[in-house]
Amino acid sequence: MESPKGKLIPIGGKEARAHEAENTGDARPVKFENEGVLQEVLDEMKGADSKVAVITTASGEPEEMGDMYLETFGKLGCKQVTALNLTGRNVNSKKTLEILGDADGLFFTGGDQTKLIDKICDTRFMDVMKDRYQNEDFVIAGTSAGAMAMSAAMIMEGSSTESLLKGIVELTRGFTLLPKTIIDTHFMSRGRFSRLAEALLVNPGFIAIGICEDTSLVVTGGNHMRTIGSGVAMILEADSIKKTNFKEAKKMQPIYVEGMQMHILAQGASFSLSERKMILEKH
């Protein structure tokens, strides 16, 4: 398959920083602080002239979340913003598909990522979204849960504060906009290394990506990942693992690993998924 012409912008979240509960299914919208990253989202579309569809399906308070994003994008000069809470009734409606077809890009809010999978996978909306991403200069952005849903294997839930123990993470399929990847968010602030590492051990041929708050990756061609924002993104690889007890370990037993690779990306550094290497930007 040819490389997609669109862009992906997974954001590590920050709008939920005042609500630290591990269960993001009831994440309450609070005031934004990451407008720098959101400005980049608009810039990757058509700037202030962008037509943005904000998908609030993951949120426990979709109307409030939608209003907040309408206000935030409005402050950045973008006035053509529509909020959509996709449900079983409206996800394939004529109006919804018209909005999707007219938009320059989508923005998936935070909340509970399993709602996105339940409501959007295997729908006409999903088919059109993927077709536009593959064949057009179409941007799909998402924060927190909205970023996690982009990957092929998606973390449903998992203990963040435990050591690396077998069985602390539960996975399901994601949108697979970025094949053979696993994405986690709020990576440093919520101590999610262990759950991302186990998710990778379950899917050893994948690349695991942990994105910090107020930080994003701009993915072009389904391959080149450029870092923006104030934090870092961490990339884990299992290809070179020499020794691990993961297969033999019993549930909740500690895991040892020799040879797992880690790369840390910040502004000025990019990463090629196909070549599995970091690329430093020229100044």
UniProtKB/TrEMBL annotation:
<keyword id="KW-0720">Serine protease</keyword>
<feature type="region of interest" description="Disordered">
    <location>
        <begin position="1"/>
        <end position="29"/>
    </location>
</feature>
<dbReference type="InterPro" id="IPR011811">
    <property type="entry name" value="Peptidase_S51_cyanophycinase"/>
</dbReference>
<dbReference type="Pfam" id="PF03575">
    <property type="entry name" value="Peptidase_S51"/>
</dbReference>
<dbReference type="InterPro" id="IPR029062">
    <property type="entry name" value="Class_I_gatase-like"/>
</dbReference>
<protein>
    <recommendedName>
        <fullName>Cyanophycinase</fullName>
        <ecNumber>3.4.15.6</ecNumber>
    </recommendedName>
</protein>
<dbReference type="GO" id="GO:0004180">
    <property type="term" value="F:carboxypeptidase activity"/>
</dbReference>
<dbReference type="InterPro" id="IPR005320">
    <property type="entry name" value="Peptidase_S51"/>
</dbReference>
<keyword id="KW-0645">Protease</keyword>
<comment type="similarity">
    <text>Belongs to the peptidase S51 family.</text>
</comment>
<comment type="function">
    <text>Exopeptidase that catalyzes the hydrolytic cleavage of multi-L-arginyl-poly-L-aspartic acid (cyanophycin; a water-insoluble reserve polymer) into aspartate-arginine dipeptides.</text>
</comment>
<keyword id="KW-0121">Carboxypeptidase</keyword>
<dbReference type="GO" id="GO:0008241">
    <property type="term" value="F:peptidyl-dipeptidase activity"/>
</dbReference>
<keyword id="KW-0378">Hydrolase</keyword>
